[in-house]
Amino acid sequence: MAVVYIIIIFIFLLKKFLDKQSESSPVQGHFLQEEKINNEENYDQYCDDHFELLIKTLIFCTYNPDQFGSVPYEVACIRSLKEDFDDIFEGNWFECLFRTQLIEENLRHKLLALKQTISLIPDNDWLFETINLNDNAHWKEINRIAEELLTDLKIEQRTYDIDY
Q1: Which of 43, 61, 114, 160 could cross-link 146 (Cys pair, CB 3.0–4.6 Å)?
Q2: Does residue 42 contact residue 36 with C-beta atoms inside 8 Å?
Q3: What single string gives the DSSP state of each residue in 101-143?
């Protein structure tokens, strides 16, 4: 019986010891602290790459089914477009496009309209690539908004350099 009490006391003291160690530890885990993650400079540093992703995605959204079908699957597929849009519209990345003035503030409403239209297509249609590019009304709207945005951004080249 005494052995059981000793084991219980040992476990209790070990737990207290470990709790105290984790409270006083200077290491705060494997991830960056919140203030480092949200530092605008960290986002602004790579904002040009994010803008390039936006342009690439918009260009692919203007393609008709024949043009889209000619692009190698590894370069662009419906599934990857959805993932790219998710990245583009992530809060901090989206805001850095305006903060660094790569996109004028007056285009925010068109980009948000694009985001809304994208959200109307079910995730499974993106995932399983079952969107009919000829007939889907939401895809036609995405195509129209993408054309307008590329025009507003003064992007004349409407084909994407696959060798990029």
Answers
A1: 61
A2: yes
A3: TSS-GGGHHHHHHHHHHHHTS-HHHHHTT---TTT-HHHHHHH
CB 84 within 8 A of CB 53: yes
Asked if residue 163 is part of any domain, the answer here is no
Angle between helices 108-119 and 137-152 (to 10 degrees): 160
Q: Number of structural domains, the chain?
A: 1
What string of DSSP letters covers 8-59? Answer: HHHHHHHHHHHHHHHHH-S---SSPPHHHHT-HHHHHHTHHHHHHHHHHHHH
Average pLDDT over residues 21-32: 50
Expressed as residue numbers, the domain containing 69 is 43-153
* Close Cβ partners of 75 (under 8 Å, ≥ 6 residues apart): 162
In a domain, 15, yes or no: no
Q: Does residue 35 sit within a domain? A: no
Half-sphere CA count of 161, side-chain side, radius 13 A? 4
CA atoms within 13 A on the CB side of 1: 0
116 occurs within a structural domain = yes
Instruction: Give per-residue pLDDT as tens, 132-159.
Output: 899 999 999 999 999 999 999 999 988 8
